[in-house]
């Protein structure tokens, strides 16, 4: 897991990482208190026959150190998050020293045998770091020290080699499990961080969406219907002065075109047209308007979709088609576009094919990283509905965008 202040992390993501790291440190501090209590109770329940004073001094020093480390860790500072893992080597050293003092000098005492039970707690402490490499860096020395302490006390305790090796193998298994757990927890935190980053990007984009929609509407009205209305007004003035029938015909054509453009704009703004005319008619109007803006020919194939059919997926298909056609207008430079809508079993399939410049691999992901969420947001909506949105190169040129979603009867 990257450090909370690593370059490239946004403030929201860094806050999530830091919060989870602090939670790990809190758990570590509690586990260290458990280890301290275990050591103290061990010397109270089964005190060694020799070296009691040196052992007591080590335990007392460890208790003071644990108190200071607990206060430092619970402060949750960035330096504590980065370096708290070093404290586990102190835990390991204390267990090793006490095991040797009680096991070598007091072979008849059970103290060292009980203390060896505390070694598996050290890898568990390391697992709270959510950093697998650091966890492994603690686990490996723990296993080696545990084996070395066992070898040093084996003769005095008359322990068979098989018993020592099996105990060491068990500790290694616990350590390996802790490394795996640390890796899983880090993956979860990264996933949460990615979700936070995506949410932040989406919120930032949504704050600007109203202005973009207004600008888009203004451009559609200014470059389309308004131009025809102005031309009709000029032709009407000419017709009044000259009485030319051709001038009246031009007025009629201009008003018809402006009416058509206004209907298309209204249809794009509000999907209520789906309820009135159905998805096939709405797609025809949408494709016709996109072709007029982009200067390309459009063919709409809705033969496998009844005009009077309604389904819960209609609005999603319509909005996705609008986004795909808008991208063709803005980026493809296409000469022709084909829009196909069909039922395949209980699913709806929408395909938009153009012969333009094509779209590179990973365009959606790069666009999302750059803050352009238009197509990415539609892909997420399609996935949330149980469908897929895929982009692939055309057979000779251009792009094929395919949308496949469940479409139960409405």
Automatic annotation (TrEMBL):
InterPro entries: HATPase_C_sf, HATPase_dom, His_kinase_dom, Sensor_HK_TwoCompSys. Keywords: ATP-binding, Kinase, Membrane, Nucleotide-binding, Transferase, Transmembrane, Transmembrane helix, Two-component regulatory system. Coiled coil: none annotated. The chain crosses the membrane at residues 30-46, 52-73, 85-104, 134-155, 161-181. GO terms for molecular function: ATP binding. It comes from the Bacteria. Residues 317-409 form the Histidine kinase domain. It catalyses: ATP + protein L-histidine = ADP + protein N-phospho-L-histidine. SMART domains: HATPase_c. Its EC number is 2.7.13.3. Pfam families: HATPase_c (PF02518). It is an enzyme of class 2 (transferase). This is histidine kinase. It comes from Pseudonocardia zijingensis.
